[in-house]
Here is the input.
Amino acid sequence: MVFMLNVKCKKIRGKIMKVAGPVVVAKEMAGAKMYNMVEVSDERLIGEVIELKGDKAIIQVYEETSGLKPGDVVVSTGRALSVELGPGIIGSIYDGIQRPLELIRKNSGIFIRRGERPDAIDKKRKWHFFGCVKKGNKVHAGSIVGSVKESGAIENRIMVPPDVSSGVVRKIGDGKFCVDDVVCEIDCANGAKRSITMCHVWPVREKRGYAKKFAPREPLVTGQRVVDMFYPVAKGGTAAIPGPFGAGKTVTLHQIAKWADADIIVYVGCGERGNEMTNVLEELPKLVDKNTGKPLMERTILIANTSNMPVAAREASIYTGVTIAEYYRDMGYCVALIADSTSRWAEAMREISSRLEEMPGEEGYPAYLSSRLSEFYERSGLVETLSGKMGSVSIIGAVSPQGGDFSEPVTQCTVRVTKCFWALDAKLADMRHFPAVNWNKSYSLYARVLSGWYKERLSDDWSHARAELVKILKKESELKEVVQLVGMDALPYRDQLTMLAAKIIREDFLQQDVFHKNDSYCSVDKQMKMMNVILKFYDEGNKVSGDIKKIREMDCARRIALLRYADEEKVDTEYKGIVKGIADEFSKIGG
Ligand SMILES: Nc1ncnc2c1ncn2[C@@H]1O[C@H](COP(=O)(O)OP(=O)(O)O)[C@@H](O)[C@H]1O
Ligand SMILES: [Mg+2]
Here is the structure.
């Protein structure tokens, strides 16, 4: 977050009239603009103008407001609530308005002092800058002029700031620089001269520009079978993961943060309990990214705004997160933004709205809840960046409806805009079926566009296998009632076989053990082979007729488990052995 007062703009100094929780009303603020950032009282608490009425400004304050009183000064900074973007963001842990929590902890202990505002990125650190343009090269906003190695895994590509229309490189640096040092000079087309540093500022509520948006075409591989094989999310796509308390939203999101094949992960802990964030903080630095072999923190940014932190900053945390995600997208990276939980974000909106005495909509949420949610998810996408690279932001948000009631407004508004729906189910969680994704209620609208990728990548008919497994599970739900009435033994052989196959799909394929080293992450190759084994078993079983006891004795579940828990490099050998084993068994029973 940038806190400097913009010197060029005339400072507007008003006075507090009223304080209501996180909301402050100030008078004598004529000239202030919507979404201007302000400093409140001598403590210079950070706030943002969210409504203007005559010379009165209504301000949401991102820090504790206790002790503020009428008459205290309010100063408008003349600029919008913004984040600071430059090398040094990766690996950081920020609060909702980009204050570096680690640095604050070092300076002043666990609690953030009011008005405390260290730089979001280290201004003293020197980076080795490598220019990639030459004197005389033409550049425009978004062009990449050089890079620094930001972390073991990520090269930060330094871009011409958004407000430069076009120009010619006059001078390009090479060597060690701090983020505020000039690394490139440009003669702009309009005759102006611009000095470019490695760092720029962006207002969080505004989406960043790109050249062109494309329909997603590749999956974001998460290593979670129920996601990748049943309800895949695309790179540049959106997914919602709704579920009641304790159904496994956070655990699932952590799994995605750990394993997804994104270049960068931005994890926003929004209004959830502090200890969950602590888990991420403790776990991630110890883990190694299986794609790059580097510590996971070298591709991760955490934004923590836990339930005990001020509610307005929670509202901002989502925007801070998505702006940082877009920044790395613009360098040509595949970024995944994970938000836990968007319901807490919506609750923050509701609280602020009620302080503003706005007309409440459904369940007290403001009428603009749905537009805010869709604006947020619309910042996802696969794009051609201004520099001509391909980059993406995928957004995955948890929704925590009270009592798991999916008909409430936040879930409903989210469903309308997200294309994947991973419905978590309390009943499944109670039965320890994890991840507790309900296979009947969940869906992915990406399955069709991604089928080409799967076909190419797996040289196997994923769409067909997926459809078959879904069909078996559907049939199982229909047969369940019959079984309850007449018992399993009364079913014809074929139906018993279906029930057996469905059980295997549920227990050995859809369930996944986060604690097992070979099961926590499952490669798509292994996932596909597991599906093939189940289908092979089912197809062969359908060819023979008769004795379900013999089929049970084959213990297909055990065979699948061999594959499931196999080391990735042994998958191929195991697979061949299992397929042969099944074929042999069936040839013994004969037709
Ligand atoms: N995939 C999983 N594997 C094993 N246990 C799980 C899994 N998902 C959830 N759990 C169990 O359920 C508990 C609650 O999960 P959590 O993700 O915190 O729920 P939520 O975020 O939906 O409230 C966890 O502490 C864990 O014991
Ligand atoms: Mg949770």
